[in-house]
Design brief:
The complex is a heterodimer of chains A (51) and B (191).
Chain A (H helix, E strand, L loop, with lengths): L3 H14 L3 H22 L9
Chain B lengths: L2 H28 L6 H23 L3 H25 L10 E2 L2 E2 H19 L18 H25 L12 H6 L8
Antiparallel strand pairs in B: 1-2
Helix pairs in contact in B: 1-2, 1-4, 1-5, 2-3, 2-4, 2-5, 3-4
The chains are: A mainly alpha (51), B mainly alpha (191).
Chain lengths: 51, 191
Amino acid sequence: MMSLPFVLFACGLGAAWTSRREAAMGFWVAGVLVLLVLFRFHATDVLNLGL
Amino acid sequence: MTADLSRLLNAWGLVALDTVLVLAFADQLWFRDLPCPICILQRSGFIAAGFGLALNLTFGPRPSHYGLAIMGALVGGVISADQVLHYVVPGSGSYGNAIFGLHLYTWALISFVAILAGSSVMLLFDRQFQSALPLPPPMTPLPLSAVALLALLAVGNVASTLAICGVGLCPEVPGGYLIFYENLGLAFKSP
């Protein structure tokens, strides 16, 4: 699960390497979305700060 | 700024970003300083930001590619800022080794801000986007190596993350390489 963003970014770089720009950008968007979801799962502690 | 100069600057920027990821691997493998789950997400953020620079090198400079670099650096910066805020209060502890007095997540935040600043400044130069060529010229060895290394680091991080976390979510404090611990009964303990 945690390796999924890397997999998507690697696929995106592979797509860029083979001159498929739209596919590369699609993999990038998918990778960032997964990254944000994983951050949501892991950032569960409340920050001990007074703002 | 010409497209050629822009490509050269993007290539050096990507080399710098690759170096950050290589150093993170060196810290992990040489000093056995296993990355925490949030640290792994920060590595993803670096690759997301570097992706935009890699597209500039592969397809020629475009504002949308800088947009990817900026958004990748924003996401990575938010993640590293979250970790910095966890440990910013004196006595609240830290994670991992300090390098030159700062922990890796603090260096990551500084690096993400540098990527944001660099990409924003690069966007100011319009002439780089006015290429007369329908297709970008073939990459020279420096950009080619930088893009290839980024791809290699992405694949390396797939293997590393699978080894540390297995196929699920990572343990909050990784005690070793889970994949070996679970399958072979072997584990490196972080110091």
